[in-house]
Amino acid sequence: MAIHYHCRHCGTNVGTISNMSVHSEQLGIHKLTEEERLHMVQYQDNGDIRVRTICEDCQESLERNPDYHQLDYIIQ
User: Fold this and answer.
1) Cα–Cα distance for residue pair 41/14, rounded to 1 Å
2) What pLDDT shows up at residue 73?
3) Residue 55, Cα to own-chain centre: how many angstroms?
4) pTM attached to this predicted model
């Protein structure tokens, strides 16, 4: 099982945790609401987990351009 983090705005692979046994509490997933979890966490058929997050570049863009918060994707 691996956990893959991808930026929800530009699709960049932010990082992967592999070959580790972790619980949702260690990842902070348990703190998400049901709606947030449905939007941000996808469980793959092979047991992997894909988490939609934000990369540093997109975070900086959002800080410089607050109007971007209303967009689903900054870079397409």
Assistant:
1) 14
2) 61
3) 9
4) 0.76
What's the domain count of the chain?
A: 1
49-53 vs 2-7, strand pairing mode: parallel
- The whole-number pLDDT of residue 41 equals 93
29: containing domain = 3-71
Whether 44 is covered by a domain: the verdict is: yes
Distance CA 42, CA 50 (A): 5
Tell whether 21 is covered by a domain. yes
How far is Cα 39 from Cα 32, in angstroms, rounded to an integer? 10
Which residue type sits at 5?
Y
**Residue 24 domain flag:** yes
Show the DSSP H helices in 8-65 as ranges. Answer: 24-27, 34-40, 56-64
